[in-house]
Amino acid sequence: MLNKYPLWKYLLVVAVLIIGVYYSLPNLYPNDSAVQIRATQAGFIVNDVTLNKAEQILTDAEIQYFGAEVNEQSLLIRLYSSSDQLKAKAALQAGLGSDYIIALNLAPTTPQWLLALGGKPMALGLDLSGGVHFLMEVDMDRYIASRLDSFEADIKRNLRDEKIRYRAVNVTGDDSIQVILANEDYRDDAERWIKRNITDFAIANTTARNLPALELTLTDEAITAMEDYAIKQNQTTLSNRVNEIGVAEPLVQRQGRNRIVVELPGVQDTVSAKRILGKSANLEYRLQSQDGTGELFPFRDSNRTVMLSNDIIVTGDNVTNASTTFDEAGRPAVSVTLDSAGGARMGETTKNNLQQPMAVLFIEQKSELTGYVEENGEQVPQYRNYEVKEVISLATIQGVFSSNFQTTGLDSAEEASELALLLRSGALAAPMTFVEERTVGPSMGAENISKGINSVAIGFALVILFMVIYYKVFGLFASAALTANLVLMIAVMSILGATLTLPGIAGMVLTVGMAVDANVLIFSRIKEELAAGKPVQSAIDAGYGRAFYTIMDANITTFIVAVILYAIGTGSVKGFAVTLSVGILTSMFTAIVLTRALTNLVYGGRAVKKLPI
Q1: What angle do CA 529, 532, 538 make, to 5 degrees?
Q2: Which residue ranges does the record assign to the SecD export protein N-terminal TM domain (predicted)?
Q3: How far apart are CA 347 and CA 352, in angstroms?
Q4: In the list 84, 440, 464, 566, which could disulfide-bond 479, CB 3.0-4.6 Å?
Q5: Which domains are seen in the chain, by residue range?
Q6: Span 133-189, pLDDT tens digits
C-alpha cells in the first residue's frame, strides 16, 4: 500500500524525537556564574573554615552570592552575574592570599534527572561568554638555536668520554655544527659514534684549519620534529598555566607552523593573563666555582657578581610541585619538591659539598617591542627576544637534603606565588610573543546571545509563515520538521560537547533555510505530479521518491564543504562548520523521514480526491 509506514518506522521517529528533546532540555537551564576555590598545595583540604572565611570576605565586599558547595578538593560559590563573578574573584584572591587558586567557573543548574543519562548544556564560545583571545607566536629560530647549543655540549662531553681527540666543536650556522678532529682516525671514530647515537644530522666530511672535520647539518625531518615538539610542549605548559589561573572551558589550540591560539572565557584582566601565559621562567641550581672557571652572573638585588660552576645540579624541569611559603626570617619563599632523578642529584651534591655555597639562578625569557613593519598594508609589531639570568640566592649548604627544600631570595609574596605557578606548570620549550589580542566584555557576549537568538527566531518565524501560506497543511508538516530539526541540532551538539559560537548561530540560521529547501523540492514535485494528472497517492509517493536524490546530492556537496572548513579553519570558522554539518544531517532526517511520516499518518492509504498543497 502506498504511503504507509510500518509500525517500527513510526516508533523509530518517535524515539529519535524523544531523545532529541531529552538532550536539548539542559540548554533551558543555563549555568550559574561561580568562583571555585582550591589550595595550591596538593593534599590540602578546603573545608568549612575556608567557606566561612570566603563568605565573610564576600559579605565585607558587599557581593551577593548563593549556593556554596564544599568538597575535599574545592569550594564552589555561585553568584548572580558575571560582573559579580569578576569582583568576587578579585576580593577572594586578595583576602585568601596566594595559598589558594581562585578560578572563574560555570556551575551547572541542570536537574539530576537530566544529568542521569549525560544531559548537559552546550558550552558558549568566547564571543558569547566574553573573555580574552590571544594569538601567540613561538620563536622557532631561538628554539632550534638552543637545541644546537645542547647538541654541541653533548658532542663535546661524549667525545671526551670516548677518548676521541678533537680541536673544536662549534655551532656554525642556523642548522649546523662543525666538529674539528685531531686526525683522520679520530674523524672516522667520531663519525661512527655520531651516526650511532645522534640521528638528527646529515654528516659530511670536510676540512677546517687544515685539519679533518665533520659538518653536521640538521635534516628537514629533524627540524620538523623539533618544531612539533616545541609547539606541543608549549601547548601543554600553557594549558597547565590556564588551569592554574582557573578558567572555565579554555581553548589552547595550534594554528599553523608556529602559532598557538589561547582563548580564556570570562577573563577580563588581559595584563595579568599575558604576564602568566607569556612568561618563560626557570631555575638552575649551581655550586659557586672554587677554581675560578665557570660563568659570571649578577645578583638581582645588588651590583655584585658571582662565578658559578658550569655544571648544573638540577633545573626547574625537575620540579614536581612548588608552593609559596616563608623562610625563617618571614620573607617570601618557594617550597620545592623534585622528581626522583633531581632529588638524587641534589642529595649527592649536598652530601659531597657541605659548607660550600650553592646558588639559585633565575632565568627569564623576555621580549621588547622594537618597532613596526608594514606587511600587506598593516603595521605588524616587531619584537626582540632576550634572556636574563640573575642569582636570587647564594647560601652555604649546612646539611644534606634532596627532594624537598626552600628557594629564598624573592622580592615579594606575589613574585613567590608567580614563580611557584610557573614551576608547577612547567617551562616553555621556546619563548613566545603576543601577535594579536582581543577582549570581549561580558555585556557584549550577552548582547551577542540576544541578537543571535533573535535572528534564529525571526528567520524561523518568517520561514514558517511562508510555508503555511504557500503550502497550507503541508506547510504545517514542514514547520513541525523545522522545529524538530532545531531541537535535534541542539541535542546533537550538546551530546558531542560542541561549543556554540556566534558563527555557529549563523550556521543555525542558514540550516533553517536549507532544511526547508528540501521540503520545497518535495512539495513542488508533488504539485507537478498532481498537475500531470496523477492520483493523489501516486503524486505523494513520486514527490518524495524523485526529490530524494536531488536533496541527497545537494546536501552531500554542502557537507563536504563543511568538513573542509572544519579541517582547515580557525576557531570561529570551525564553530560555523560544526553547526552546519550537524544541521545538514538532522535536516535530512526531519525534512524527508519526519514529514513523510506526518504525510502518511494524515493522507496515507486513504481515498483523497484533492490535496491542500
Answers
A1: 40
A2: 2-104
A3: 9
A4: 464
A5: 7-26+441-603 (1.20.1640.10), 32-107 (3.30.70.260), 141-223 (3.30.1360), 279-438 (3.30.1360.200)
A6: 888 888 888 889 888 888 888 898 889 888 999 999 999 888 999 999 999 989 999
